[in-house]
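Batch manifest, entry 17 of 40.
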Amino acid sequence: MDKFEQRLALNHENMSKIEEYDKLMAQMDQIGNGGPALETTFPSSASDASPPKLSITSAHPLFDVKTGKQL
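Output type: structure tokens
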């Protein structure tokens, strides 16, 4: 019976996703400009801070110390 219940739960999850997709498609039809803003549909998980800058110098392991050429 566990397999049957797992399959029912998975089916319910898939149907929920289809319903959400149908709602988004209906919004796209109503708005007429391609749908809701991306910020509301796909919220950003990244912070506003810029990424750290990395510098590659001749002391970096990707460079030959003697010649200064990239390996």
